Amino acid sequence: MFLQKLLLLILPFSWFWGNGPVKVTVYHQKGITASGEHTDSIAIPFASISRDLLATYPMHSKVKLENCPFEGIYVIKDKMNKRIKNTIDVFLTDNSKKYNPCTCDLSVYIEEIIPTAVDSSAVSGK
């Protein structure tokens, strides 16, 4: 409970209510991302984000896309050109299909933290 209250004080207000609808496109370009990783070595679903959204959703944060064909949780690993606004690019390895841009609801994804039992002897040093 304390952590949740602390997050409310630290994180921007829009993190809890989402940023609303964003344009979602697909990219297949292989290479080095802005996070310094090569697209071939990233095993988790990831996305590139426009720079106007980067302040709310920083690099390596998890975002959730809803109400669209690309629903899911993605890690932000790349940023887009300065001229592009309010857009997320989802990275897909299959470039044989053509996808039309769509509009999705964007929100931050915060994993629930489950407290673990602590061995009292380890804490007291006995």
Concise summary:
This protein is of the alpha/beta class and 126 residues long. The chain contains four helices and six strands, in the order ααββαββββα.
Written overview of the protein:
With about 130 residues, the chain is α/β, with parallel strands linked by helices. It has a single domain (about 20-110), classed as RlpA-like domain (Barwin-like endoglucanases), CATH 2.40.40. It has helices at about 1-10, 15, 50-55, 120-125; strands at about 20-25, 45-50, 60-65, 70-80, 85-90, 100-110. Strands 1-5-2-4-3-6 form a six-stranded mixed beta barrel. Strand 3 and strand 4 form a beta hairpin. It is globular. The model is unreliable at about 5-15 (pLDDT under 50).
Give the CA-CA distance, first to last residue: 29 Å
Please write the string of helix (H) and strand (E) elements: HHEEHEEEEH
**Fraction of helical residues:** 10-25%
Query: Largest sheet, described in full?
Result: 6 strands, mixed, barrel
Number of helices: 4
Q: Write down the overall geometry.
A: globular
- Mean pLDDT, to the nearest integer, reads 76
Task: Extract low-pLDDT stretches.
Answer: 3-17
The chain-level structural class is alpha/beta
